[in-house]
Design goal:
Rossmann fold, binds S-adenosyl-L-homocysteine, Cobalt-precorrin-4 Transmethylase, domain 1, alpha/beta, single chain, 17 strands
């Protein structure tokens, strides 16, 4: 079932509630809070409802349901607890084109009442379309915890300033930016501290000092290794406020879906670590030009990179370029592949008994292979996390062995780390190239080499068991 969500204005509108028990009492209270003029129809009422009727704040139709009770009603709620009566109400309402809600009966209802998080005038409504009310209330509880109580006063303040804000900033993009930077920042902080007056003053001050034309900016954001759960809250916030997202190909769709709904998504197609893609992909200069163009047009650009933007991501170059062109920027770190792959393969990067240091290295081209300090890399009791290494495994093994690393040094090669299709291939430096070949390991993959890699066999917890160790494979088969 697919429902059309709507928020109804019930002020001064007649609503009928059939049933006079405790459930009806709750429904009536909510309807009256929204300004509805409620008539309750039932043979008997709770004490509280009877008091309301006596006080003249509630109309009562006594007796058993009759279709003409619906005359003039915009909505009806059936809360009798008697399915036959509820069915009668629903049928009569259907004939008269009055929307009916039957409490706890999705099938008989022509409208549903959602679970709500109330930060009036901000209201979040949640529905599972009747499929799982318990799930809806679980989600409600989670959102309840997420939305601070000061959002109510904030929405109220925004409502009072709405007209002035529109006059001062006619551009929707400029308004949105003022809201994100100023209202959600300093103004919200003051409300959180309970100082409504100072918040009001700050709103006015901010509006006065905000120019009418929007200033563009770039956020260099780390998207993490692929699992959307490893996207930081700051990265989420940046994505939610982006006008344009320039992303690497390695960033999966689940992460991109966190972006603001009408943000423009541009795949700048750097397929790091793999073969150059068939499709035309932007080179670094094109990416620089795109960032500049969008930022100069006043847009909020998110440059989204896999992992962390400062770890083999050319983030440094991009910032130098932006700084040289006077574009404001910020950086949001991400969980880099080495940390994520190690965690999800059960390989502690350092370990009191096995490794006192860890190095992040890349070995994807001749240049990088030739310029590395192999003597230092071949030292024992340290861990190497090798990025973009699938193509260079043979050279890597040769150099390490040449410089004295033991052939028995364990490795764990993690392909698609943290994703549903993660694979871990294990072995020793001696059989590294053959094992990787036998299992056809593809990018993105990260090599962890060092004594700690032996632990992958015992500590794996995520995805399928490690491949490559014969005893294990036999057991898994
Ligand atoms: N900035 C990124 C690294 C970019 S270089 C970061 O901090 O993680 C791209 C390389 O990162 C890939 O070739 C691969 O070695 C590694 N990588 C990125 N995501 C990965 C993943 N989910 N699983 C395994 N390796 C990954």
């Amino acid at each position: 079932m697919s429902l059309y969500p709507l928020f109804a204005d019930l002020r001064s509108r007649a609503v009928l509630v059939v049933g006079g028990g405790a459930v009806a009492e709750r429904k009536i209270a909510a309807l009256r809070a929204a300004g509805a003029v409620v008539t309750v129809g039932a043979p008997a009422l709770t004490d509280a409802l009877r008091d309301d009727v006596a006080r003249g704040t509630l109309r009562h139709r006594e007796g058993n349901f009759a279709a003409d009770w619906l005359d003039g009603a915009w909505l009806v709620v059936a809360a009798t607890g008697d399915r036959a009566v509820n069915r009668q109400v629903a049928a009569a309402a259907e004939t008269r084109r009055v929307f009916a809600n039957v409490v706890d009966d999705a099938e008989l209802s022509s409208f549903h009442v959602p679970a709500i998080v109330d930060r009036s005038p901000l209201t979040v409504a949640i529905s599972s379309g009747g499929a799982a009310p318990a799930l809806a209330s679980h989600v409600r509880a989670r959102i309840e915890a997420l939305l601070e109580p000061s959002l109510g006063p904030l929405a109220d303040l925004a409502r009072r300033w709405r007209t002035r804000l529109r006059t001062h900033l006619p551009e929707p993009a400029a308004r949105r930016r003022f809201f994100e930077r100023h209202v959600l920042g300093p103004v919200a902080d003051l409300l959180r501290r309970g100082d409504a007056q100072a918040a009001e003053v700050e709103f006015a001050r901010g509006l006065k000092s905000t120019s009418r034309t929007a200033q563009g900016s770039v956020a260099l954001v780390g998207a993490g290794p692929g699992d959307p759960g490893l996207v930081t809250l700051n990265a989420q916030r940046a994505l939610l406020t982006a006008d344009v997202v320039l992303h690497d190909r390695l960033v999966p769709a689940e992460v991109l879906s966190l972006a603001r709904r009408d943000a423009e998504l541009v795949d700048v197609g750097k397929q790091v670590g793999g073969k150059a893609s068939q499709a035309k992909h932007a080179d670094q200069d094109d990416i620089h030009a795109l960032m500049l163009e969008h930022a100069r047009a006043g847009r909020r650009v998110v440059r989204l990179k896999c992992g962390d933007p400062f770890v083999f991501g050319r983030g440094g170059e991009e910032l130098e370029f932006l700084a040289a062109h006077g574009i404001p920027f910020e950086v949001v770190p991400g969980v880099t592949a080495a940390l994520a792959c190690a965690a999800h393969a059960g390989v502690p990067l350092t370990h009191r008994d096995h490794a006192q240091s860890v190095r992040f290295v890349t070995a994807h081209c001749r240049d990088s292979v030739d310029t590395l300090d192999w003597r230092a890399l071949a030292a024992e009791r340290q861990t190497l996390a090798v990025y973009m290494g699938v193509a260079g495994l043979e050279a890597l093994r040769a150099r390490l062995l040449e410089h004295g690393r033991a052939p028995s040094t364990p490795f764990a090669l993690v392909e698609n780390g943290t994703r549903a299709n993660q694979r871990v291939v294990i072995g020793t430096l001696a059989n590294l190239v053959e094992r990787a070949g036998a299992h056809a390991v593809r990018a993105p993959a990260l090599l962890i080499l060092g004594e700690v890699a032996a632990l992958a066999n015992r500590l794996h917890w995520f995805g399928t068991v490690p491949l490559g160790e014969p005893a294990r494979e036999a057991r898994a088969a």
